[in-house]
């Protein structure tokens, strides 16, 4: 295969804004194809893209399976009926302890969700309770961000996180209730 | 011929017999992998296996974008998952499935920057002294990642001999002489020229079929 351009020559030809005067390139269809390919895909010498960890891939793949299930269940949007950060405070009373503690109440269709958030030095601690007719806590899963939490024997959900969730979902057998998107910008 | 509903299979071609509609007849039974548009059609019909194939195709690309934003490991995981969640939730609004790779790169970048900004805000609040690098993911870097992904997918559809030849010629870390490449492939060096041409032609056909290159041999614009 003597006479053909080396890889470096092909790469330089591909990178040149104007094709240099190269007698071989003008007449060699094979090298022309190679130059074109190298110009379109300038990835010579780069290592292959690393694979994502299998657990991440599995979780993403599970979206379609979960969605098929979720398509068949009813979703109820909760309304925010109380937020302690929205409550007016007496002058000079709002201090750090008020900001680091937050309480919500969400309601819809006789279902009530109470959430308390407490901010520690490095993480948030949450407690939630959902009440409503014919609800058994053992059937309920609370979803906050990436975490899924089951209720304890008192029917309370406890979890901690370095970041507060954007929303909270409660999953029953054929029902999903969802809070509106939450903002955690300090008042 | 395609096997409906099954896993995409690599072509069983040998000697680079073209096996697609309107070309030479196959000497062997050929299964042609689906391009993104075809795969997307199956996703829209609720085919979870097609969704899994699509993730398999682009998981490394999305992961590469997320890891280059300087995020913590949990945030990389969030960036990865949220990108796929966004694609799935907007699946019926995606107008150009042939450009899914571009959509994924754009969305992963947006998620990465959102998580980065959130981390920076939190770092300020906890008085960490280290200032995170605030440079966003430049488009030039993302374009190279996308090209790498597209080329990787196309190379995976080549027969093993062509794949090895193209990798050795063009994408190995260090340049190798024709004699070295011929020796590694077990071929006479004077047969490499024609083989290289056929392999590049085949690669080009795959890139065109996948929508990553158009018939005029131009790369479909990334980003």
> Low-confidence segments of chain A, ≥5 residues, pLDDT <50?
none
What is the C-alpha radius of gyration of chain B, as a whole number of Å?
Answer: 21 Å
Poorly predicted runs of chain B: 1-30, 126-134
> Structural class of the secondary elements of chain B?
mainly alpha
How is the main sheet of chain A built? 5 strands, mixed
* Number of DSSP strand runs of chain A: 10
Main sheet overview of chain B: none
| Helix share, percent of chain B | 55-70%
- Helix content, binned percent of chain A: 25-40%
Q: Kindly report the greatest chain-chain contact and the residue count on each side.
A: A-B, 41 and 60 residues
Mean pLDDT across all residues of chain A, rounded? 80
Shape of chain A: elongated
Strand content of chain A: 25-35%
Biggest sheet, spatial arrangement of strands of chain A:
1-10-9-6-7
How many H/I helices of chain B?
8
> Distance N terminus to C terminus of chain A?
73 Å
Question: How would you describe this structure to a colleague?
Answer:
The complex is a heterodimer of chains A (187) and B (223). Chain A has five helices and ten strands. Chain A is of the alpha+beta class and 187 residues long. In chain A, the strands form two sheets. Chain A has a five-stranded mixed sheet with strand order 1-10-9-6-7, with no helix packed on it. Chain A has a five-stranded antiparallel sheet with strand order 2-3-4-5-8. Chain B has 223 residues and is mainly α. At the A-B interface, helix 1, helix 3 and helix 4 of A face helix 2, helix 3, helix 5, helix 6 and helix 8 of B.
């Amino acid at each position: 295969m003597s006479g053909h351009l080396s890889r470096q020559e092909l790469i330089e030809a591909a990178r040149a804004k104007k094709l240099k005067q190269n007698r071989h390139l003008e007449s060699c269809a094979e090298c022309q194809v190679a130059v074109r390919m190298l110009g379109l895909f300038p990835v010579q010498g780069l290592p292959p893209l690393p694979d994502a960890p299998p657990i991440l891939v599995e979780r993403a793949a599970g979206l379609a399976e979960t969605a098929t299930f979720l398509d068949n269940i009813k979703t109820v949007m909760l309304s925010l009926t109380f937020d302690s950060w929205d409550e007016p405070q007496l002058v000079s009373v709002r201090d750090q302890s008020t900001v680091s503690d937050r309480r919500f109440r969400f309601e819809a269709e006789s279902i009530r969700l109470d959430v308390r958030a407490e901010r520690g030095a490095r993480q948030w601690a949450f407690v939630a309770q959902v009440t409503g007719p014919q609800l058994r806590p053992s059937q309920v899963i609370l979803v906050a961000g990436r975490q899924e939490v089951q209720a304890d024997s008192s029917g309370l959900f406890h979890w901690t996180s370095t970041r507060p969730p954007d929303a909270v979902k409660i999953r029953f057998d054929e029902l999903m209730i969802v809070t509106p998107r939450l903002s955690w910008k300090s008042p | 011929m395609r096997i409906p509903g099954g896993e995409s299979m690599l072509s069983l071609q040998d000697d680079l017999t073209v096996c697609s509609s309107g070309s030479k007849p196959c000497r062997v039974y050929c299964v042609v992998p689906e391009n993104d548009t075809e795969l997307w059609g199956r996703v829209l019909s609720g085919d979870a296996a097609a969704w899994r194939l699509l993730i398999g195709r682009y998981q490394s690309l999305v992961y590469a974008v997320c890891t280059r934003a300087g995020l913590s490991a949990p945030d990389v995981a969030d960036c990865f998952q949220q990108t796929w969640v966004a694609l799935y939730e907007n699946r019926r609004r995606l107008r150009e499935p042939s450009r899914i790779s571009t959509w994924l790169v754009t969305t992963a970048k947006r998620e990465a920057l959102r998580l980065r900004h959130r981390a920076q805000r939190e770092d300020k609040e906890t008085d960490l002294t280290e200032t995170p690098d605030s440079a966003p993911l430049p488009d030039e870097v993302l374009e190279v990642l996308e090209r790498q992904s597209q080329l990787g997918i196309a190379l995976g559809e080549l027969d093993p001999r062509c794949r090895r030849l193209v990798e050795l010629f063009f994408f190995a870390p260090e340049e190798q002489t024709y004699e070295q490449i011929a020796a590694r492939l077990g071929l006479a060096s004077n047969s490499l020229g024609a083989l290289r041409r056929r392999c590049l032609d085949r690669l080009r056909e795959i890139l065109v079929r996948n929508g990553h290159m158009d018939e005029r041999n131009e790369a479909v614009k990334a980003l």
